Amino acid sequence: MNNVSLKDLKVGDQGRVTGFGEGGKSYRRKLLSMGLTPGVEFSVTRYAPMGDPVEVLVRGFRLSLRKDEAGSLLIEKI
């Protein structure tokens, strides 16, 4: 298993959500409602010019996440 942070992935890299780290329950619920459930695979499609937010392709749609907020995701690089 190769656990990394979303911040460590580059454009074109793929990852899989393995769980959630420390953080607020409300934000975890928001991520789950946006389709970022454990086991789902995604790819990084682009970063904003200053590196925040990051856009990922998950379940056929593009989702933008602030890097700090996305830090609560535990992911595995695939």
Termini Cα gap: 9 Å
What is the CA-based Rg, rounded? 11 Å
Spans where pLDDT lies below 50 across 5 or more residues: none
* Helical fraction: 10-25%
Strands, count: 6
SSE pattern, N- to C-terminal: EEHEEEHE
The class by helix and strand makeup works out as alpha+beta
| Approximate strand percentage | 35-45%
Number of helical regions: 2
Mean pLDDT: 87
CA-based shape: globular
Strand order of the largest sheet: 1-6-2-3-4-5
Largest sheet: 6 strands, antiparallel
Overview of this protein structure:
The chain is an alpha+beta fold. 17% of the residues lie in helices and 40% in strands. The model has no long low-confidence stretch (mean pLDDT 87).
Map the helices and strands.
Elements: E1 3-4, E2 14-20, H1 25-33, E3 41-47, E4 54-58, E5 61-65, H2 67-70, E6 73-77
Antiparallel strand pairs: 1-6, 2-3, 2-6, 3-4, 4-5
Descriptive key words:
78 residues, 40% strand, globular, 17% helix, alpha+beta
In short:
With 78 residues, this protein is α+β, with helices and mostly antiparallel strands. The protein has helices at residues 25-33, 67-70; strands at 3-4, 14-20, 41-47, 54-58, 61-65, 73-77.
